[in-house]
Amino acid sequence: MTYKNFxxxxxxxxxxxxxxxxxxxxxxxxxxxxxxxxxxxxxxVVSDAAVKGxxxxxxxxxxxxxADLTMIRSMFSLLQEEQAKNPDTAMQKLFDVxxxxxxxxxxxETCGKPWxxxxxxxxxxxxxxxxxxxHGRVASNxxxxxxxxxxxxxxxxxxxxxxxxxxxxxxxxxxxQMMTTGQTLTPxxxxxxxxxxQVVEPDQLIPAAKQMIKDGLKPVAPWxxxxxxxxxGGIWTxxxxxxxxxxxxxxxxxxxxxxxxxxxxxKCVYEGLQVPFDTGLKIEQRYFTQVLxxxxxxxxxxxxxxxxxxxxxxxxxxxxxxxxxLEKIGVVGAGFMGASIAYVSAAAGIAVSxxxxxxEAAAKGKAVSEKLVADxxxxxxxxxxxxxKLLSLITPTxxxxxxxxxxxxxxxxxxxxxxxxxxxxxxxxxxxxxxIFASNTSTLxxxxxxKNSKRPKQFIGVHFFSPVEKMMLTEVIVGEETGDEALAxxxxxxxxxxxxxxxxNDTRGFYVNRCVFRYINEAYDxxxxxxxxxMIENAAKMAGMPVGPLSLNxxxxxxxxxKIMKASIADLGEASVKPEHMALVNKLVDELDRRGRKNGKxxxxxxxxxxxxxxxxxxxxxxxxxxxxxxxxxxxxxxLLVTIALEAARTVEESIVTDPREAxxxxxxxxxxxxxxxxxxxxxxxxxxxxxxxxxEKLAADYGDHFKPTPLLLxxxxxxxxxxxxxxxxxxxxxxx
Length: 737
Fold this sequence. Notes:
Low-confidence stretches: 732-737
CATH superfamily of the largest domain: 2-enoyl-CoA Hydratase, Chain A, domain 1
Strand order of the largest sheet: 14-13-12-15-16-17-18-19
Strand content: 5-15%
Number of helices: 30
Number of domains: 3
Helix content: 40-55%
CATH topology of the largest domain: 2-enoyl-CoA Hydratase, Chain A, domain 1
């Protein structure tokens, strides 16, 4: 029998090598067709007396990344369709669909013939769960091999037996840690946790897997044997009595109760370890179905799995422009940002001419890459040879003529219009006619900067976030005259350096910074009202933000806030900035020299390591303090999230952001907007626009007109629309919920 996605070769010892190699796919993923073929393969090998065992592996450099986008989408489509047709049967149908993979892996586990998973690369999600259902697991020791159950990061949890098998193989504490954080394991760590039996050299992977079967591997899972005991003794032991009361508290501390999928993992393990294995699988299936129906799961999967992949693959790339692979670029400005842009470009195999005012300044820029490489080599993340190759691609220089053969220049000089004007003129004097000029400005409108260019059609903004090597988002800003060619090349470049792009139209602060400064400004309001700074920061974290607004302001620099406010007043007038905000920042910067982390004092104090930063005690003396008992933490949480979401809605109303996927993905990757919401617009859609408008009106009455709902929101509320229905990114062929 032949299969589209698999080949089967049975050797003289009766061992069937099943190789998963999907045509026209760079990575193996689970689809309905793949599942059906695995089902048929199990039947085939069981019925063939000549087959003594199965080795399951991948024909690609990776093993599998898990489920395909279409498979995830189909689950939600099924739920929506069934709820519309027959709400009474919707849950049962979703329960059955959600359990398909679960029971198929159980079929492998109980088929009566030994299966060994030979893991040759990245093995994530359902693929790792399939491997755990095999009777033996061998992993290559190549650095590219990573194993994980990362589902909690996209709003769900391991629902194909993962919670039951991991908790029966590893000790409970390690199992919970791994699954509730989505932790990635190296092969050696997986072996130490008893999740992998052997770790071997890459060329020994298949022979070692076959040898396990030849050595008499039993086709029975440990939990199916009489007398099986859970590592550590299970739930009713002294050790468990210490672990389980603490586990929910630790989870709440880390997640503030915002992630139903993470809590479901605890429930699945706690309940599942007290019952037979098959009953444990049903418990897992029940919770998985329940979590799938949650707003958090729907929103997170849409934004962090589906939309992120679509944007990364060029969803916003103009049609009809040939894809370009960049070989050499220029980076002008070898300060920290420019130096870091040079590093990520060289890491992607692109040659970089790194230019600054003189050779010494340019060399300092390259030194940033040298330190990053040295750190990576020391930590074993990069080989010495790869590090040397990366550094060889960066040429520091003061000579602009080295840009004569580049296809893209990224300008990363000081945020000053005159400085940027001078650079644009120098670059364009030597730049090839077909090359694109990209400014990394963080606030200055691209259209204004492009007025200094002789070819505004080839002028675009490419806004990176610091630290560049860690932040996954890049804003691509289209000016009034920017052409499709410039947009396409910018997106090709961002894709090549493995960042996720969002495309935004031109405005002051673009998208991310506009939202960020709303977040910070709301914290200013709270401080001025007398809300204790500790409550502001803690409320932000409870709302799901990675850092509080005051901490974030210290990171971006308080004096940068001052410069942006002054620039706003100069360009837009006094009314563009609240006088109380200006006074607060002026006091911190001009009177107290508290500029943020960079000078060791801002809203926080930064003592010498290893001591941790702490809020500056003098904050409480700036304004009369309210007693904590008079401050409603839930209202603080609402204010911080709503003010950001409102600003996102304004950018849509102003046609700065035109695709809701970009608003959502940009808010999460750009500044960590409460990921459980799915992003700024999903936060609004998730509660319903009508409910959001009512909340805005209440907050506006209590805390100021900046909370007033916009005309767009009022219109959407009246019509019962959502952002994903009104601004459907998929067009008429796919109506979004």
